[in-house]
Amino acid sequence: MSSTGTTGTPLTPDTETKVSEIGEADILVGIPSFNNADTIGHVVRAASAGLAKYFPGMRAVLVNSDGGSTDGTADVVARTVVDLGTMLISDKQSALHKIITPYHGIPGKGSAFRTIFEIARRLKVKACAVVDSDLRSITPEWIELLLRPVLDEGYDYVAPYYLRHKYDGTITNSIVYPLTQALYGQRVRQPIGGDFGFSGKQLDHYLDKHVWESDVAKFGIDVWMTTEAIASGGRICQAFLGAKIHNPKDPARDLAAMLVQVVGAVFALMEEHQTVWWQLTGSNPVKLYGFQYEVSVEPVNVNVDRMITSFRQGLEDLEPIWRQMLASDTMDRLMPLKDCTLQAFRVPDDLWARVVYDVATAYHKRLLPRDHLLKAFTPLYLGRTATFVLETQALTTAEAETRIESLCKVFEELKPYLVERWGNPIHG
Amino acid sequence: MVGDVLLRCYHMGREPVMKEFWETALLSPLTEVGEALLHFLPYLLAMIIVLVVGFVLAWAIGNVVERLLRVLGLDALSNSLGVSAALARGGVKSEFSHLVGRGAYWMVIILTVMSGLFVLNLEPLNQFARSLLAYLPHLFTATLILVAGFLLSNFISQAVLIAAVNAGLPPARMVAALSRWGVQLVAIAMALEQLGIAETVVVVGFALLMGGVVLAGAIAFGFGARDIAKDYLERRLSLKQDDKKADDLRHL
Strand order in A196-199's β-sheet? Predict the structure, then answer.
């Protein structure tokens, strides 16, 4: 998935000029965008206020990397100003520099990040933060929480920690979080959160990797950044950011494509870092900064029947394909779910962990074309999501969180199963 | 001719006549046959040698190709592409590397037999071998088209099946089967055209068949699967309240 190199990312002439004019900076906040005119103004205001309030003496730059928006996103960023007086912030800092630039490469968040990273490297920043442009719940404190651990505590990477509805982020909860914890031994709760802080050193590491033409350039960028930070031995911490409220960007019709990108990136990273995780056992908590509090989260409606129907159709129509990608024992335990009642329908934790490990192994051993494999995984994921909903519908979000933690434990316990099926990465 | 000799024998005396009879009527043809045989024998011997060497070579090449492809991981690749599963569905249980090895074996056998015919140096056989040789590239191309079509049809039908299931399309397997047959049909038509077998008939037949398949599909879907189509369209257009709710789930 990667190789290293030092080729710079091309910037537009205007951006080059702007970067030259600024010269150097201490901190940078990047905002990737594509048609986010209705929300990006709030994000820019929060970031600007955060920089002014918490880092008044520092040279700060705000970069908007846009994917060719047609709704005036760039105009909104350009004309957004913050009245610091109303926030009781005394303006002691030099003017905040704003760079609004289009990005090159395949459309996606990863390509937008690449441009932000390149600008940050040229400005020789000490710390950098990136935040999504569709956030409605971002506050100035987010900027401090993402940058301060890097500047004051010497961390290389700050992952976000949000309060989310129990059914918000189901790919994170059922696949990426348990798998990241079991593989790399770090309990990073939101490995694909979307808002991160990182050091200049970590920035160089990211830019020197040649992954920008792969799925990482799309939805895979978040998990790639987290995994790279962990696997490269960087110092990791988390920042409590409260509730994450944002515009939905993952309609169900794109689910298969999303799984291809996110889970494909996770599996590709497993291959790249197999010598890191192969013999690692157990996991450690990751330091969490910020004042923790309870907050109500947006309700999420789910249609369990539809998910189970999709799972069962998969069992009916994709059985030969699933038999190629799953172990026969795993398949034998899935088959009875074809005819059971709704109340009895369950994909238990240990079976789900085996399914994920089987699919990861099938990906590694190329038992199927990888695109087909990851897309054929979609009904299995929906079956497990339906199980989670059925098991937790009477629970609060906090109680559901304990269910997720117990799933993580099962993933850890069954890691020897993965290691056995995967094969020794040293001897092949 | 024998009548003339006997008549002359009666008129001219017995011994000289008999001598001439032996020499002209019996020995001369036999000598000619013998000479022809002696002339032909080296060619026959050469053909036998060519055949024996060719058969040994075919056996060796077939085995080497099979083992080499196995080492290079062709079987794993064919498994991942669904080729092995497709072959098994068609009753072929052999591994793909074995099949390719057998293909190489038979290719060498054909070349050997043709070389043997050339070595015999008999004009009618030479002509036959020459025309067979001229036909071989077409045969090879047609085989390649069929193999490529077969592989492509499996890949496409698998992709279609998965996409149809993820879209919640009830007749997913039927759609996937139709896509497989469609691609295979195109491959067969192209291969037959390459072989020069009733080209016009193939093109017209193919057009008729494809038209028929599309029409049959439309009629079948229209009449036989009205409920399925209605249900599918309803779900796609979100007319059912149940399915509207599913959009709230945030996966990332």
Answer: A97-102, A60-66, A27-33, A127-130, A196-199, A157-163, A236-243, A288-289
* Least confident among A317-331, A350-364, A399-413, B148-162: B148-162
CA-CA distance, B220 to B180, in Å (whole number)? 18
Backbone angles phi, psi at B249, to 5 degrees: -65, 125
Contact at CB, B252 and A318, closer than 8 angstroms: no
Side chain identity at residue B237, one-letter code? L
Tell me which residue in A258, A317, A379 faces B252 most closely, judged by beta carbons.
A258
Through-space distance between the first and last CA atoms of chain B, rounded to whole angstroms: 106
A317 to B250: CB separation less than 8 angstroms, yes or no: no
pLDDT one-digit tens code per residue, A200-258: 999 999 988 877 777 666 668 899 999 999 999 999 999 999 988 887 654 445 788 88
Contact A306 B243 (CB under 8 A): yes
What is the enclosing helix (H) or strand (E) of A128? strand A127-130
β-bridge partners, A186: A284
DSSP structure string for A235-289: -EEEEEEEE--B-----GGGHHHHHHHHHHHHHHHHHHTHHHHTT--S-EE--EE
Q: Residues A103-159: pLDDT tens digits?
A: 887 788 888 999 999 999 999 999 999 999 999 899 999 999 999 999 999 999 999
Q: How far is A55 from chain B (nearest CA, A)?
A: 31
**Taking chain A, what is the end-to-end CA distance rounded to the nearest angstrom?**
18
Those residues whose C-beta lies under 8 Å from the C-beta of residue A184, and which sit 6 or more positions away, are A227, A230, A231, A273, A276, A277, A280
Place of tokens 């038999």: A323
Amino acid occupying residue B190: M
Question: With contacts defined as CB-CB under 8 Å, which chain B residues touch A305?
Answer: 242
Residue pLDDT, tens place only, A26-55: 999 999 998 899 999 999 999 999 999 999
CB atoms within 10 A of CB A147: 29
Q: Are strands A236-243 and A186-187 parallel, antiparallel or unpaired?
A: unpaired
Residues of B in contact with A313 (CB under 8 A): 165, 168, 170, 172
Closest CB from B85, B168, B247 relative to A310? B168
pTM for this entry: 0.80
